[in-house]
Design goal:
This protein is α/β, with parallel strands linked by helices. The chain is 29% helix and 13% strand. The strands form two sheets. A four-stranded parallel β-sheet has the order 1-6-5-2. The chain has a two-stranded antiparallel sheet with strand order 3-4. It is globular, with a radius of gyration of 18 Å. One of its GO terms (molecular function) is glycosyltransferase activity.
């Protein structure tokens, strides 16, 4: 019997007949049911079509209307698994900012399945990168850690190796005014290729749209995105 990664309590697992007859291998849960309930899942039937925000209708939200006014003819069509609520903020603090790599296991299975089942096979999955200084400090790319058995392409890199101000510390206006931080590092152009960007959180969309522009400039015909939270 294992302990919950979040609250530390022992996890009690009751195996039912449905699992017994499924012939699926058993995998120990890493968080208890009470902690899992704190993460709010998003339903595709009630989200913004541009960013995946949970809402009462399927019309573009104010954020996405703003992106359209700024010249984005094709929105990212982002899809996310969870709402960025207090439970998710606490998770990101522990996993992403404190660098507890074990916490990748909390969402690794679900997010990996979400990614592989969301689009057809003729797409290229591209990760949002981590700058070199952050990587050396944290020791891992938090987005890569959320994926298992998913073939990804590292086609984006930061333009500079110098430390930059993290998006999480900026105001909304400062985030929107962030200059293009990425450069293309692929060996060949993406002529006609459909691309799915993968990131942990969609906040303002600024980072993802910067990545989208670089990929389009290098031949991508369509760029959409998937995130763990919105």
């Amino acid at each position: 019997m294992d302990k919950c990664l979040i609250c530390g309590r022992e996890i009690k697992v009751a195996l039912d007949l449905k699992w017994l007859f499924s012939l699926q291998p058993f995998k120990e849960p890493v968080i208890c049911h009470n902690c899992e309930k704190n993460f709010k899942a998003i339903s595709d039937k009630q989200t913004c079509p541009g960013c995946g925000r949970l809402q009462d209708d399927q019309l573009p939200c104010k954020d996405c209307q703003r992106w359209s006014k700024m010249g984005e003819a094709a929105l990212l069509g982002n899809r996310a698994l969870y709402v960025y609520n207090e439970a998710m903020k606490s998770y990101m603090q522990r996993y992403k900012f404190n660098g507890d790599y074990q916490w990748r296991l909390i969402f690794q299975d679900k997010f990996s399945q979400f990614v592989t089942k969301s689009y057809c096979k003729n797409v290229l999955y591209v990760l949002i990168p981590v700058d070199q200084i952050t990587y050396k400090t944290r020791g891992f790319n938090q987005v890569s850690g959320l994926l298992q058995n998913v073939k990804v392409s590292n086609l984006l890199a930061f333009k500079t190796t110098k430390a930059h101000i993290k998006q999480s510390t900026k105001t909304r206006q400062a985030r929107m005014e962030t200059a293009q931080p990425f450069k293309y590092c692929g060996k060949k152009r993406l002529t006609g290729q459909k691309v799915i960007l993968i990131d942990d959180i969609y906040t303002t969309g600024r980072t993802l749209y910067h990545a989208k522009h670089v990929l389009q400039q290098n031949g991508a015909s369509q760029v959409r995105s998937l995130t763990l939270a919105r």
